[in-house]
Amino acid sequence: MVWVVSVQPLKPHLVMFWMLDFVVFKKLKSTWIKFGCWGASSGIGTETARVLALRGAHVLMAVRNVESGKKVKENMIKEIPNAKIDVMELDLSCMSSVRKFASDYNSLALPLNILINNAGVFPYSFILSNDNIELQFATNHLGHYLLTNLLLDNMKKTARDSQKEGRIVNVSSIGYIAAYPEGICFDKINDRTSYVNYRAYGQSKLANILHANELTRRFKEEGVQITANSLHPGVITTNILRHLGLVGGIFNWLSNYVNKSIPQGASTTCYVALHPQVKGVSGEFFADSNIAKTSEVAKDADLAKKLWDFSFKATMSNPTSLSS
Ligand SMILES: NC(=O)c1ccc[n+]([C@@H]2O[C@H](COP(=O)([O-])OP(=O)(O)OC[C@H]3O[C@@H](n4cnc5c(N)ncnc54)[C@H](OP(=O)(O)O)[C@@H]3O)[C@@H](O)[C@H]2O)c1
Known about the structure:
Pfam families: adh_short. It comes from Penstemon davidsonii. The chain has eight helices and ten strands. It has a five-stranded mixed β-sheet, sandwiched between helices. By secondary structure, the chain is an alpha/beta fold. Helix 1 packs across helix 7. The longest helix is centred in the middle third of the chain and has 28 residues, at about 135-160. Strand 1 (about 15-20) and strand 2 (about 20-30) form a beta hairpin.
């Protein structure tokens, strides 16, 4: 059973636009159309998009590989003939791609209510992105941070014009507890020698939580009608372990028997993004469609502010280079 079955029908004021990692609802002329986009041909994001399309969402898929995105779109339309789905290119690990995507989207002058930051990678080895940033931090956090910032004016305007709450949902992980002991190693993001893959993953997932918390603080300060929450989807067999080789294969095989299914994994995202019970709730961490406890480091407001300032500098057009 999936939580989303209890979600209220989408209201016409909701503008949804779902990217590889997020969902938005948008209005076109006088007709409310729901959009979503995502970047994968599998995983939690695809299932989230499917559920949203089933609920009448117009889904815009932001994908690294447009061809595979189009195949997902075709399959979805076979199942849901009335589904409205589009595909756009986005590489979250590349800040110029994020800027181009946001610019293209904003130039459409379409509203945006719900943003789901879902994309994630968990590579085995230390990898630098094209921008020379450790890949997990770049993809899992910085790309989402920049994308959110570049779409915020749109979301604020939409919330004002529609008088309806906007929602930002960061798909984090309970793996955040495995972050380095310092939480975020600001001076060692690019330090290959101290890199431990699961700790770097935990760091990036901790950043997802801190990002949502700092957004919440800022929205409250500004009096903006947008919420920001983070969540753990559960442990689910997806492609996320594809780079872990045999270990990932064995884990995935075992996990088929004990873990959540992909629809169950997408349920908390759908709940936090859509459910009326979550109205006005912000700065919380969810698991199993409920508010869950986090560690002290995940609640650290000073750390969240420091991460915001660090991320701002790292994603500027001429970023301060990260130490290596
Ligand atoms: N599965 C779990 O047990 C689990 C547990 C806790 C948290 N999570 C979180 O859940 C989220 C979804 O993961 P998943 O399990 O569904 O894994 P997945 O099947 O590997 O999906 C990850 C998605 O992120 C996309 N992506 C990766 N790098 C990207 C980039 N540079 N630009 C754009 N899109 C990119 C992938 O696109 P491609 O198809 O192009 O690779 C894919 O759509 C992640 O944030 C993950 O950390 C998962």
